[in-house]
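Good morning C.,

I know you're traveling, so I'll keep this short. The sequence:
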Amino acid sequence: MTRYLHTMIRVTDRDATIRFFEMIGLKETRRFSSEQGRFTLIYLAAPGQEDAEVELTHNWPAEDGTAEEYTGGRNFGHLAFQVSDIYETCARLQDAGVIINRPPRDGHMAFVRTLDGISIELLQDGRLEPAEPWVSMPNVGTW
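The tokens, ready to paste straight into the viewer:
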């Protein structure tokens, strides 16, 4: 038997990334730091769904203070989250400065990116009637 455990993404700014996922509705469930390995693991999940986690891996800067950069070669497809109101979620993210790469014009699906360029798909539970400003908003970049 196979059971989904979590999806891991590497992050450069753990606090900002946690705030990003909190705006979607995830909460921190646990945290582990390794002084020897020089990393911190932070697990987040939607309330009541703690068995489906996102693991944020933050590798600490090197002893000389340089930090590793993560580019497209270390990224992957996307994470998907179902939300109760896609318009409200996208508005909250946009108000916080997050670019809505693919607006929820259809009342069902949108794409945004984390600070580290990880694509996040937001899916409405069902469909909402198309509404402005989302209907006429163009795509911004790729997702």
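Safe travels,
E.
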